[in-house]
Design goal:
single chain; 115 residues; Threonyl-tRNA Synthetase, Chain A, domain 2; 4-stranded antiparallel beta sheet
Length: 115
């Protein structure tokens, strides 16, 4: 794993989106990124996770996908990326709020190219 390439991708991503993402860890099997700043508070937050996956894929020469994410109490996210060939499924957390009731669900998302 070329950690310097990952750091460069994050630096460019932060400039392009005025984000405040930080690398938590990078190994051959997993890249973990802490998303901070305004990108955590938009209606398209998950799109930023996927945009970073595309950037990582381009820089590292193989497809990476966001396989899991956790929202912290402060509204920031920790996102886990893995090479596409090493995963079986992608899960996405969905929060549904109806008045004062909150339901959290996890749904499976097909990998790219799968129906």
């Amino acid at each position: 794993m070329d950690v310097n390439k990952v750091k460069k991708v994050l630096e460019d991503f932060n400039k392009r989106f005025a984000a405040e993402c930080e690398l938590v860890k990078a190994t051959d099997d997993e890249i973990v990124v802490h998303f901070k700043g305004h990108v955590c508070f938009t209606c398209g937050t998950y799109d930023y996770f996927e945009d970073l996956a595309f950037d990582l894929s381009d820089a590292l020469g193989k497809e990476y996908v966001p396989v899991r994410y956790e929202q912290k109490e402060d509204g920031t996210y920790v996102v886990y990326y893995k090479p596409a060939e090493k995963i079986e499924k992608v899960e996405r957390e969905v929060t549904i709020v109806l008045y004062d009731q909150v339901e959290k669900l996890r749904i499976e998302v097909p990998k790219r190219g799968e129906a």
